[in-house]
Amino acid sequence: MTDDVLTARNRANAQNSTGPKTEAGKTKVAGNARRHGATSRPDPDQVATWLAIILDRPELTSRDLLPEDDAGYRALALAEAEVRFIMALQALQEFEAGCAASDEITQDLREVGQGIMQELIDDGGTKREVRSGTALMDHILQHEAQETHSGGKRHRLLKRYLAEAKAQRRKALAAWLAVAA
Questions:
Q1: What digits encode the pLDDT tens for the residues 36-57?
Q2: N or C: which terminus of the chain has fewer CB atoms within 10 Å of its end residue's CB?
Q3: Most distant CA pair in the chain, distance
């Protein structure tokens, strides 16, 4: 295949992957960054602290925080990249230290499943109902394990965020060094 054919095919495929279209879907994905904090907006105070270190100025001016030249933009980008890297690293370390709790949806699922099982026990459900309830609880526990245990989906996601933050920091540092030299 020629490059033009590949490009056309890739563009056609990209049109199918444009994210959620409904308001409910958009609302759901809007909360993804708040779920673990690894990709949320960096704290401006921390960015300012790193910018002061990068520029080697203990006191920053408003001009430093709102740069007008290429070096200022690159320094600010490096400061933000550094803060994002630290946030991603902290989120991964907290997860690996066992501080990761189940998300609200998983906790709600578990409570519903436990309620169903309790009703089946209290009301003496049929064997089929008990098997269905047990299967439901197994699925909920598997989902929870994926969310809270090492090697699960959340762990892999946090590792990916850290790798992306490292790459962003490396590029920002190279850009900063190119204009600072």
A1: 566 678 888 898 899 889 988 8
A2: C
A3: 77
Q: How many CB atoms lie within 10 A of CB 94?
A: 15
Alpha helices in the chain (DSSP H): 3-15, 23-30, 32-36, 44-55, 62-65, 70-94, 104-123, 127-148, 153-180
Any idea how long the chain is?
181
- Which conformational region is residue 41 in: left (phi greater than 0), alpha (psi within -120 to 50 degrees), or beta? beta
> What integer pLDDT is reported at residue 171 of this predicted model?
96
DSSP string, 43-76: PHHHHHHHHHHHHT-SS--HHHHS--SHHHHHHH
Distance of alpha carbon 24 from the chain centroid: 19
> Three-state DSSP class for 171?
helix
Non-local (6+) Cβ contacts of 82 within 8 A are 50, 54, 169, 172
Separation between Cα atoms, residue 87 and residue 79, nearest integer Å? 12
Task: Tell me the CB-side half-sphere exposure of residue 148, using CA atoms within 13 A.
Answer: 16
Among 36, 77, 44, residue whose Cα is nearest residue 159: 36
Q: Can you tell me the distance from the alpha carbon of 173 to that of 181, in angstroms, rounded to the nearest whole number?
A: 12
Of 93, 87, 98, 101, nearest to 40 (Cα)?
87
